[in-house]
Amino acid sequence: MDATVDKAATETAKPKIVIYDAKPEDEAYFAGALPGFEVVTTPDHITPETLALADGAVAVAMHVCCRVDAKVMDAVPTLKLVAARSTGFDNVDAAEAARRGVAVVTVPSYGEHTVAEYAFLLMLAVSRKLPATLNATRAGEIHADDLIGFDLNGKTLGVVGTGHIGRHVIEIGRGFGMTVVGFDPFPNPELAADPNFKYLPLPELLAASDVVTLHAPATADNAHIIDAAALKLMKPTAILVNDARGSLVDTAALVEALTTGVIAGAGLDCLEGEQFENTDQELNLLRHRSHSEELRQALCIDILLGLPNVVLTSHNAFNSAEALQRIRETTAQNITAWQSGAPVNLVK
């Protein structure tokens, strides 16, 4: 090859970025939105096998189901940017990334309405026994006495976490005619001044609420904020909703509470060990004889899937066309800003 041509090719080579968990729409969008990169997309999660795609990459982008830790960074020594296509970043070892000089960026706001609406989908599905009603209708064996639910109107809604999503949940709850109370270690001043809203300590909120819905981030302080003791404070007629993060709830304690009548039901879009809802992941767990805690989580999920008072979905609250487009746009902006030397939405 001519040396001049070879030099020109080297000088014009684009940095490589790999977009994991990519839909066909993602492939088309990022190819056009990131002209300064060689964009590689895959529908798969980050795994030891799919990491080969990131050979030589300076950046990876992924959803919350992908873990980016020291092992991933070891496998991709050229990595300089992790673009989380989510608000939460507990799936990224941010401390390790900082130690290695790898920037981490997030999408701070994309689905306040989307996730808030989904919380009410879960509330209504549990409170009105939607799965049992659908099954009875399909079977042609409808017994109305078995399908009695309860109204949200007139009930007390406890919102744990009053950030962007939590504030939308509060507004929707009011629209349903619910009395809304909240807990947040960092109260919102406007809400605190609202005569129609009241902040309560968490134990008081749990005891007062007919529905408790979680909208807090995954932090060390929030790990198992809903544990066995917290569940025992709730009304036996109450339901728990979680479309925030699985680590907020002690899943084993929740299984115990649901099977012994401590609470009446749960609507869950997030769980500890939610990856084990996938049969392939369960098989992988068995093949590698993984830790007992992972086996415990997988067992809890299997039990929850069989309970009639539980509605369980697989981290789907974010998944609307509008929210996905906002995620794409902000992710592309994050990557372009980082490439220009003026990064935005950095994890610090």
CATH topology of the largest domain: Rossmann fold
Can you name the CATH architecture of the largest domain?
Answer: 3-Layer(aba) Sandwich
Q: How much helicity do the residues have?
A: 25-40%
Count of DSSP-assigned helices:
14
% residues in beta strands: 5-15%
Report the average pLDDT across residues. Answer: 90
Shape: globular
CATH C-level of the largest domain: Alpha Beta
Low-confidence stretches: 3-11, 285-289
Radius of gyration, in angstroms, nearest whole number = 23 Å
Structural class: alpha/beta
Mind telling me the CATH superfamily name of the largest domain? NAD(P)-binding Rossmann-like Domain
Number of domains: 2
Strand order of the largest sheet: 8-7-6-9-10-11-12
Report the biggest beta sheet as strand number plus sense, adding barrel if it closes.
Answer: 7 strands, parallel
Straight-line distance between termini? 46 Å
What is the element string, with H for helices and E for strands? HEHEEHEHEHHEHEHEHEHEHEHHEH
The number of strands is 12
Looking at how many chains there are and whether they match, the oligomeric state comes to single chain
